[in-house]
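Weekly modeling sync, notes
Attendees: S.R. (lead), two postdocs, one rotation student

Agenda item 3: backlog of single-chain predictions. S.R. asked that every request posted to the team notebook include the full sequence so nobody has to chase files. The rotation student volunteered to paste the first one in as an example of the format we agreed on. Action items at the bottom.

Example entry:
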Amino acid sequence: MAGLNDLVVQRPQGLYCPAGDFYIDPWRPVPRAVITHAHADHARRGHGAYLATAISAGVLQARLGGITLQGLAYGETVQIGSTRVSLHPAGHVLGSAQVRIEQAGQIWVASGDYFVSGHGDDANATCRAFEPVRCHCFITESTFGLPIYRWARQADVMAQVNTWWQANAAQGRASLLLGYSFGKAQRLLAGVDAGIGPIVVHGAVETLNDAYRDAGVHLPATQRLDKADRSVLQRALVVAPPGVLGSAWTKRLGDFSDAFASGWMQLRGARRRQGVDRGFVLSDHADWPGLQRAIAATGASRVIVTHGYEAVMVRWLQQQGLQAGSFQTEYGGQDDDAPERMPGAEAATPAVSDTV
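Predicted structure, as returned to the notebook:
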């Protein structure tokens, strides 16, 4: 599928723009990296120079240390080699961006990770909403690129969380809500009803809460578990990364009910595999209709699919008459701060014709 004049190609280090001599979210050390967002599988240590959104600088510096970072406002353009590069909102987490590359009248956009709801008007309130960028070629993620993934409205999911929390509080139990510490935790905090009771968080979540607040995102008052009075825990919502499940950290909670917020909770059996009481279907990635909306809005005649269900998405795109292929990447690793990836999810892969 690759052509001589492609603006982005695959190399062992990551996705490379030859005309600008830079990489996008490279997974091996390179001289110049353009970073779409600060999740651990997209922003890594060891690069010579970094370019990212200015609003993501606090999180990137906190996670990567003393890096050489150039921050851009959304829509601001810089010349890199023979290309003009700008960053545009992706709606995924604080500072997340799509990378627009223009050279000699050709425009390519690399999406990174992004959130677009199939409902169209249900944006992530903790970051700038996804803005479609017209282009000739769109490089899209496909984390939830199967027709079975269709998200409910966020308000409906948050109502479920509030009902669960309120019921636990009435019975004198803490409510342990698991979500990745960067992005998911803040989205949960911004959406729950803080009037139900106190909100307690893991230290990793609070560090990132500070970055969100510094960027002007409103979050309710929170306190770290290690500083919280035990008397408040019986009615508290406790937000923590999934890695605490089954650890000594949870013993401080006393009696508690636990739940996991993730798009993977839509899979039959996912809650059982995680061993939690409840599963709430909430993702910071586009669902199947959202992916379709986003791709169509770019007007691209060529689409390159990355991490997720590439084969299914490529097949569907080709059925729509688009030129489509895939890049193999190293995105989507499972850890507390990486984008959502549930072991066993691949077992749910159906044929497109069986589910559309």
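Discussion: group reviewed the output briefly. The chain is about 20% helix and 25% strand.
Action items: rotation student to repeat for the remaining queue; S.R. to check formatting next week.
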